Amino acid sequence: MRLLVTLLLLLVPVLGVWTFWTAEENGWWMPETVTTYGPDIDFLFYLILWMVAVFFVLTEGLLVWFFFKYSKKDDSKGVFSHGNHKLELLWTVVPGILLLVIAFTQMETWAEIKYRGNLPKSEPIAHVWASQFDWRVQYPGADGEFGTWDDVESPHLFVVPSGEDVVFILHSRDVLHSFFVPEFRLKQDAVPGMAIPMWFNVNKALREEGLDPKDPDSEDKEAIRLYDLICAELCGWGHYKMAGRMEVRSREKFDEWMAEQQANVMSNDKEDQS
Amino acid sequence: MSVPPIPSEGSAAASEGLNPRAPEGQRKGLGADGTVYIEHDHHELSFLRKYIFSVDHKMIGLQFMFTGLVMLGLGGALAMAIRWQLAWPWTEVPVIGELLFPATGGAMSPEFYTMLFTMHGTIMIFFVIIPMLTGAFGNFLIPLMIGAPDMAFPRLNMIGYWAMVPGLFFAIASFFVEGGAAAAGWTAYPPLSTITTAAPGSMTGQTYWLLALTFSGVSSMAGAVNYATTVVKMRAPGMTLMRMPLTIWSLFISALLQLFALPVLTAVSIEQILDRVAGTGFFTPTNLVVNQMNPEMAGEAAGGQPLLWQHLFWFYSHPAVYIMVVPAMGMASDILATHARKPIFGYKPMAYSMMSIAGLGFIVWGHHMFASGMNPALGMTFMVSTILIALPSAIKVFNWLGTLWGARIQMTSAMLNAIAFVSLFIIGGLSGIWMAATPVDIYIHDTYIIVAHFHYVVFGGTMFAIWAGIYHWFPKMFGRIMDERLGKIHFVGSFIFANCTFYMMHQIGLAGLMRRTADPYAYEVYAHLQPLNEFISISAFCLFFWQGFFVFNFFWSIYKGQRVGRNPWKGTTLEWDAPSPPGHGNFDRELKVYHGPYEYASPLVEEDYLMQTRKVD
Ligand code: HEM
Ligand SMILES: [Cu+2]
Ligand SMILES: [Cu+2]
Predict the structure, then answer these.
(1) Count of A-B CB contacts under 8 Å
(2) How far is it between the farthest Cα atoms of chain B?
(3) Which residue in A89, A222, B59, B98 could disulfide with B54, CB within 3.0 to 4.6 Å?
(4) Cβ contact B512–A12 (<8 Å)
(5) What CATH code is assigned to B47-577?
(6) Has residue A34 been placed in a domain?
(7) Which residue has the higher pLDDT, A233 or B22?
């Protein structure tokens, strides 16, 4: 029994670390990020992962060791100790400092992504409307203004240009939803009654494999990339299938698509009038 | 040693709860040194007064425990249905499928899935974990461990149990009302929960859900008033605050948490009920269009704020997650010290860290709302307070390890479960740091990492501590000991399967899968997670059925377990001074406390334990 329990306790850190170690090749890991701030989030994730891993192995290791060592049959008395002041100080101050380090390193990235004051100055490209159980994206028409007769409405598909700051406004028509694109490392609840401005900049989408990611000239300008837009907040029975699509295009391709859509709206409108 | 020796274990006097020494007249009123005695009348109580409407804290504790265990079975069964759907969506559910869903050939509907996880979470939190920790252990242990004859308000205590019963009724009955049970998650976020057309569960089920919560709140409140008063006013002479066992500290602290936080939950639940039935508009904003219908046109009020609910709900529910783990920490500490035959390492840091967890627990609720649309600057402050709250938890882990260092570990089932508590709580505690870090939380919020995290705390932590507590205090409850062999079999399987079930949820969450999803494979990118989900589900089924060993052991031992005397584990705290099981009024002699609660391996005495009541010259 003693050996069995020791083994079980030992398997926790061993298999625990092993799963994380091999997770990426098994596909049990975050998808590669494509936005400008994605790598910052990933860096913070790994920073915490490493710190946590050290404490995980240390504490679980001590637990295994102590269990194994002190569960031997022994009729003498255990150590009569009520604690140790220095040790307490040590394991209060060291984790305390590390936790503060963690806290402070997060702040900049959080502020960059979410603070209103740090929103890129560009005009919103679209209003995104969530409702049970779909996404609708509203672009301005040729007049460049929202809420006029020539607005372009795109169901389920959110087309954006790559390599530039994209600002959009998130709304909900009915209940809570959440705008989640895993590759963008972006998630924000859509709240009825609120208009929440968001931004991202997809700067890696158009880089084909084999091309040098650091060389902007090597971008394949023709590629169009699709990502899943996922609803991450419970919104009713259809929550699981409230899927949208993010389509990332180069600026030219984006403009092309936009012009096409605007022309569609125009011709539909003419048909309506005739 | 001036105190008369304790009647020897198993002696007739001990098992009948009689005091052979005290003359009849001295049993009431104040003892010489201020101990409160209540009369040890031996008039026979009717069955009704003894087992149903009992005012004895021990019986009420057992009532909470049996109710909690039955509800654990129900909540667990709901989890099994959840797991079936996640591994093999839209296929025939075994056993119950044809009965419940004849129209679809036995496959569940997505609506039903939303009810499943909502009611699983609700039942587990409000009708299993909280009643088990505070209701069962709180009731049973507080008077016994501080040397009191009963709770301060025995009648209120009885009301506390019976207030929970209508709650249970509403929770279970909600499955059978029009539209079915509540389906807005255990967090009941409006407007999904307030607009009747937004989800089938929001028709009538949600109102039942809110009533269930309100009654369970009344129950918790009655308990909390009682526990706090009892701890403050009814400690035996010599039982100073700093001589209280950590279990008592933890139960005291969670009673205070309940006292301060619960009124808020009760108030918002009533507000949500009013929104739903009386046409108020606390949480429903203006101009919604739900199912092509404008609720305002249909007569529902508007002008409210969905985020208001989130703030107020989490103002209660974050402290509540500490209510669900702090008593487990306390119990695990006592069990570790007893079966390690060693004083707890750093008693004061242990007590202070629980206090600071409780204190900080009131200023971290916003960490559930980083993605909610709350002002991001506010998110920053909630991040800092949340990261800081990891510190007292870390201190506790180190002190538990310190307790094991140089110990003489007794490999009892209670001890193994307590060690598992430490091992698994570490995982849940560490993964919490990611969630606290706002930028990282942007990615992992509402994914399966969250599900992994809180199950490590609440299943890996609290459930294992509850098992440890049952193995440990069972002799005091029933005068018999649970079978150790079955206990160990139960432990080994539970430990393996719990880890297999919950660890892999981290991986699924990292891959980005969101929680509360009825069909993970609706997204192509998650199709490759199916084998992993199957593995998790099979582990979960094994975990569930493995509990058969526990259930059998529990009931078998009540009737057939080996009889034991007062102090089978050679513990030091006061409950081991009472007969097993203690009679009405608990103690059969006057108690005076001379020592701290963890004098194991003390050099002052020959034995390796020095009871709190034993005077050493
Ligand atoms: C028998 C072992 C258990 C299994 C296999 C299990 C499984 C699950 C699963 C798979 C979910 C996620 C549902 C979803 O997001 O779609 C879940 C949710 C949840 N579980 Fe458990 N669980 C177990 C025990 C417990 C216990 C003991 C508690 C105690 C508090 C608990 C509390 C919760 C809560 C609060 C939720 C969230 C519900 C919601 O999203 O509204 N579970 N459980
Ligand atoms: Cu949704
Ligand atoms: Cu919280």
Answers:
(1) 320
(2) 82
(3) B59
(4) no
(5) 1.20.210.10
(6) yes
(7) A233
